[in-house]
Amino acid sequence: MNVTVDTVSVDLAGTRVVSGVDFLVGDGEIAGLVGPNGSGKSTLLRTLYRHLRPAAGRVLLAGDDLWQRAPAASARLVAALPQERATDFELTVAEVVAMGRTPHKGAFSRDNAHDRALVQGALQQVGMDGLAHRPFTGLSGGERQRVLLARALAQEPRVLVLDEPTNHLDIRHQVELLALLRGQRTTTLAALHDLNAAASVCDRVHVLSSGRIVASGAPAEVLTPSLIAEVFGVRADVVTHPLTGGVLIAFDHITPLP
Amino acid sequence: MSAVAPMSRRALTVTAFLLLTLALAVTLAVSLGPLDIPAGTVWTIVAHKISGLGDASGWTVSEEVVVWQVRLPRALLAVVVGAGLGIVGAVTQALVRNPLADPYLLGVSSGASLGAVMVIVYGGAGALAGVGLPTAAFAGALLAFGLVWLIARRGGGYAPMRLVLGGVAVGQLLAGLTSFVILRADDEQQTKGILFWMLGSLGGTEWRLLPLPAIGVALGLLALLARSRPLNALLMGDETAAGLGIDVARLRRELFVVTSALTALMVSVSGAIGFVGLMVPHVVRLLAGTEHRKLLPLSALTGAVLLVAVDVVARIALEPEEIPIGIVTALIGAPLFLYLLDRRLERR
Question: Where do the TM regions start and end (chain B) (predicted)?
């Protein structure tokens, strides 16, 4: 299912945080949203999982306005991994993942075998199936994150919206998660801090700076040394990855740009 | 598959255990007192009153009056109020996303206290002539609810912080007014009556007091059970809930209305009984988990058992004098609560 972000603007407390953002995520594509802290990535994503209503513009799912649907109807199509990753309450891992079934269930309906199979399958996909009955609060940050991704998968979405999915993950789990996303072929829009991760997994990247899109396109076209210097304010060179042959961004971690 | 099968067997065991305990507690509550009545006699009297069966010569008239007019309605009101406090406690904790919340956090009980105290001090005269204490308490609770509603509504979304701060501020305001009214009361008997009411008591319960809170708690439980899944999602946060297809502002509004109405109903018949609403959901979470489809009914049952038992102690500990029930819930509840908390920390 394709997603069109159609000149979306978002206001927070009267200030325009995202202005006139336009892009398309094709069916089955993985799109990366990159940009420095405070550039509006999370805010834009929140309009896709209905936490924030756009002040102007529309979010279209296969051509239909997301915000015209009933909340549960849009949650059957779009699942999110937001930044909220902790709770003061003791839920088990299985209970957290089972929340993904919420938009599919009526007020009094119980979890059936199908729901349980989806929960189990999602836990397997993220490699957490042995921990179903562990308390969620007792997990490490990275484990929690994988459980929350499992919750999004159990939602059976047509579109995944992920806010920093690789945060807190060790390198092995980052690689596994990105491989999982590539293998899913579910339309995905992810905010990513790690430009190399974005370059390796995304079909397209959209660069946000101060709430506006400043570049869009294939990673190799967009992530150039001059753009990285301009938007992120660091020195970098873009080379061919010695192992994968893809794009590798080599940052200069020693000399800040003046 | 078995790895994620729900722990329904455990929940069923706990339910069965609680139901048995509740039956036992109610029987004890009706049988114990200044006039001890054997459990068998208690149930034959009850069966006789309900169905007309049985021979009325097996017991004395005073036994019948004590069972049917005094102790049974009181025990059943304890069931209803305990259940209600347990449910409202669990939901308030999810509503403001804080495990330390209790039903009185949102100010409703302070309003009820003001209403009750006004009637105790100024009742029988002027504008308040003929107004019953429960009615006045309920009106006061509605006043508090309305004020908190207006405060929380601003800024949109009934955010947890606004609800809590609004509730605390309105609670303080009304508590100040209540204290002022109490100070102006010059009658020592009145002051004692006020203290008794504010600490909570089920003394003097009559049948006619039962239907309204009972229906309220039943309907409230149903309305909240229908929102079990959204309540679960709310524990993780507003963004999570929104992403799962929940209209969070609307859900909060509904939960706020239902919990306030239930609290108002209960406080108006029993006073502000403390600690039950805070403690019961925690006990149930330890026994059966946090998931609301289990948490809500089990909190109702646990609250009912607890309040029936506590009311027995309140009645007979210093026989023939009664202790306000809130004192007993605090004296029993606080150590029990700390013990449970300790066990939980060990388990981690």
Answer: 75-96, 103-125, 131-151, 163-183, 207-226, 255-283, 323-341
Reported as type and span, the H/E element at residue A64 is: strand A64-65
Q: Give pTM, 2 decimals.
A: 0.91
Residue B4 contacts A, CB cutoff 8 Å: yes
d(CA B118, CA B194): 10
Interchain CB distance below 8 Å, B239 and A117: no
Class of domain A1-77+157-215: alpha beta
ipTM of predicted assembly, 2 dp: 0.93
Q: What are the chain A neighbours of B5 within 8 Å (beta carbons)?
A: 116
Query: In 10 A of CB B157, how many CB atoms?
Result: 16
What DSSP state is assigned to residue A67? G
Contact A116 B239 (CB under 8 A): no
Contact A184, A164 (CB under 8 A): no
Which residues 161-190 in chain B show a CB within 8 A of chain A?
none
Domain residue ranges of chain A, discontinuous segments joined by +: 1-77+157-215, 86-156
Write the CB contacts of A109 (distance below 8 Å, at least 6 apart in sequence). Answer: none
Is A210 strand, coil or helix? coil
| Interface contact flag, A103 B244, Cβ < 8 Å | yes
Is residue A190 a contact partner of residue A34, using CB atoms and an 8 Å limit?
no
The pLDDT of residue B125: 61
Q: Do B238 and A51 touch (CB under 8 A)?
A: yes
| Confidence (pLDDT) at A74 | 96
Of B328, B342, B324, B346, nearest to B271 by C-alpha is B324
* A189 contacts: CB under 8 Å, gap ≥ 6: A3, A25, A31, A33, A45, A48, A159, A160, A161, A162
B336 interfaces chain A, CB cutoff of 8 Å: no
**Sequence-distant (≥ 6) Cβ neighbours of residue B339 within 8 angstroms:** none
Alpha-carbon distance of B80 to B78, in angstroms, equals 5
Q: Do B229 and A99 touch (CB under 8 A)?
A: yes
> What tokens were used for B71?
């102790």
Show the domains of chain B with their CATH numbers: 4-346 (1.10.3470.10)
Residue A12, strand partner residues? A15
Better-predicted residue by pLDDT, B124 or B304: B304
What distance in Å separates the CA atoms of residue B64 and residue B72, rounded to the nearest whole number?
10
Residue for token digits 């455990």? B10
What pLDDT shows up at residue B345?
Answer: 63
Q: Looking at chain B, list the stretches that DSSP marks H as alpha helix, in order from N- to C-terminal side.
A: 8-31, 39-51, 61-65, 72-95, 108-122, 133-153, 160-184, 188-199, 211-225, 228-236, 238-243, 248-270, 276-288, 292-316, 325-347
Question: Does residue B204 sit in helix, strand or coil?
Answer: coil
pLDDT digits (tens, 9 = 90+) for A6-31: 999 999 988 999 999 999 999 999 99
For A126, residues 6+ apart whose C-beta sits below 8 A from its C-beta are A146, A147, A149, A150, A153, A177, A180
pLDDT value of residue A136: 94
Cis before B297? omega within 30: no
Q: Give, as one character, the DSSP assignment of residue B141.
A: H
Q: Indicate the residue of B97, B240, B245 with minimum beta-carbon distance to A76.
A: B245
Task: Compute the radius of gyration of chain A from its Cα atoms.
Answer: 19
Q: Terminus-to-terminus CA distance in chain B, angstroms?
A: 26
